[in-house]
Write a structure and sequence with these properties.
Blueprint lengths: L1 H22 L9 H12 L1 H17 L3 H8 L32 H6 L13 E6 L7 E5 L5 E5 L8 H16 L6 E6 L4 E3 L4 E3 L5 E3 L2 H8 L10 E7 L28 H4 L1 H8 L9 E8 L2 E8 L26 H7 L9 H8 L29 H4 L3 H11 L4 H9 L6 H23 L5 E10 L2 E8 H4 L8 E11 L2 E2 L6 E3 L3 E5 L7 E11 L10 E7 L5 E7 L3
Parallel strand pairs: 1-5
Antiparallel strand pairs: 1-2, 2-3, 3-8, 4-8, 6-7, 9-10, 11-12, 12-16, 13-14, 13-15, 13-17, 17-18, 18-19
Length: 563
Amino acid sequence: MIEHQKRSLILNSMIIAIVVFLGMPVSGNAVTVEDMDRNVSERDTSFYRDFFDSVIYDSTAGLFRFDELWNRISFRKKQALDINVYDEVPDSGFFVNRHGKRQMSISDLKRGPETGAGPDPNGPWRVIKGKVEGVSAGFFIEDSRGDQYLLKFDPKSNPEMATSAETISHKFFYAFGYHIPEYYLIRFDPSILSVDPKATYYDEDGFKKPLTQEALWELIERIPKMKGGLLRASASKLIRDHKGYMDFDGRRRQDPKDLISHEDRRSIRALRVFGSWLNHYDLRKGNTLDAIESENGEAALKHYLIDFGSTLGSAADHPKVPVAGYEHIVDWFEIGEAIPTLKVVEKSWEKKWDKLNRTILYPSLGYFDNYHFDPAQWKTQLQYGAFNELTAGDAFWAAKIITGFTDEEIREVVSTAEFSDPKNAEILSEILIARRDIIGKYWFSKTVPLDDIRLFHSDGNTYEITFRDLSVEHGYVRPDETIYRYRMSVSNSGKTGTADRTHEFTTSSFAFEAPVLHSGERAAFQIQLKRGKGEGWRKPPLKLTVALGERGLLELVEIDHGK
C-alpha cells in the first residue's frame, strides 16, 4: 500500500513539476515587502523546480557527461578541492570552522547564530505577508524595531514537533560551521498582530488574495494553542541583500571568490553526513540563500542553509513517513531493482512501520529512530551529484565533527526546544547520541581515523609523531586490538626513492630517525592499521609529508586521509 501511494505521488509530482517548469518563473526568497510582492509566486514553485532539476534534467544530462559517467562506472572519485594541506576545510563563504576546530561552550551551542532576543515581545507586530512557500502554516511580520521575521508553526496534530526540529537542528548546523540565519523559539499572544493593508496570501487553491484580519484568524485556527491562548512559533530573521539560491553543483560565476565547482567542495559533499545525523532529508537548493554581507570592510557573498522544520522526525506539517531517509522521492536504483521481477518488495523499514500499527508514539517528536539507520545508505528526498561524490576523507571529516559533540552538549542543545514533556527531550537526546556513534563507528572504519597529528623533535636526529585514534578514543574499538604500521620514503621533483621497510607499533605515537633531506626533498609516511585478527591492513593509507623547515628541523607539511 505504501509503495502504491508513493509511486502515485511520484507520477503526479513529475507531471506537476513539468507544468510548473514550463509555465512559471522561479527565483529567490523575499527580504522586503516590495521584493516579497514581486517574488512570492516564484518562491512557491522552488520545490517543483528543484524536483525537475534533480529528477529529470540532471539525471538526463548526466547520461551525456561521459567523464562523470565513466567515474560512476569505475567508482572513481575526485579529492575535494576546498581543503588545505592539513586535510581541513578553511573558512570561506561556504563554511566557518566552529565546534570542530575549537570546542564551543555550552552557552554558545545553545545560543547558535542568535545575536539578539528575536521579535520585540511587546509588539505590535505588523503582518506583511502570508507564507506560501512550503507546506507549514506561517506568515511574515515586521516588529516595532523594523526587523522582519518569518513565523512558522506546528501542525495541530503534532504540537511542538516542527518548531522543536527547527530549533535544535539549526543550532547543530551552525555549530558544524555552516552559515545559518537567526532563529528564535518564541511564544506570543496573537492579539499583538495587526494586518498590513497591503498584505496578501495564497489560499489553498493557489489564488492570491488580500490578507484580511478574518483570513489571518482562520490561519491561526490551524495552529495549536498553548496555555493562555499563546502561540508557539519558530521565528527566522529575514536576510537582507538576498541574491538567490546556492547550487549544489557548478559555481556562481558572478562571484570572483567562487572558483571551485560546488560538487568538488567537501563542505557541500559532507552535507550528506551531517544531514544523516539530523535526518535532514529536505537538503536541497531551494533551502539555501546567497546573500552579500560586509566582511572586514569588503562585500562578500555568504551561502546560507535555511529551513530546518523538516529535520529529525518532522516533515513540517506532519510527521515524516517511514521512507524518508531511505529512498529518494524518485529512486532510480530502487526502481531498477524492482523492474526485473516486477514485484514490490516490502522493505525492513516498512515492516517496522507496520509493527507499530502505523502510529506515532510521540507526537512532538514525529517519526525518528535508529532501528534501520545505515549511514552509507541514508538519502535525501532529492538526489544531488555532490552527495554521490562523497569520499571516505570527506566523510571522516564530517564524522569527526559530529562525534566531537559530547552527550551533555547534545542534551543541552535538545533542551532549547523546551518540550512541555521532559520525556520527549530525553528520548530525542538518546536517539541522537546513539546515531552519532553509529555514524562515527561506520565512517571511521572506512579510513585510518587518526587526528591531531603532531611532529616533535626528540633529540639529535630522532623525531616523534603522535596522534589520536578517534575510534579508540570514542570507544568504538579497544586499544589492545589495534596494530599500526608505517612506511617512509623520500621524494624529490616527483621522483620517489626506495621506501624504507615497514615498522609496526601499537601505541599512539612512533619515533623515527630522520632521513638526510636536501633542498626540495620531502619524506612521506604511509600509515595503516588493522583491528583484530579478521581485518587486513586498511586502505587507503593515511599519508603524511614532512620537509626541512627554516630552522633546519623537520616540519609536518601535509596530511591526506585519502579519497
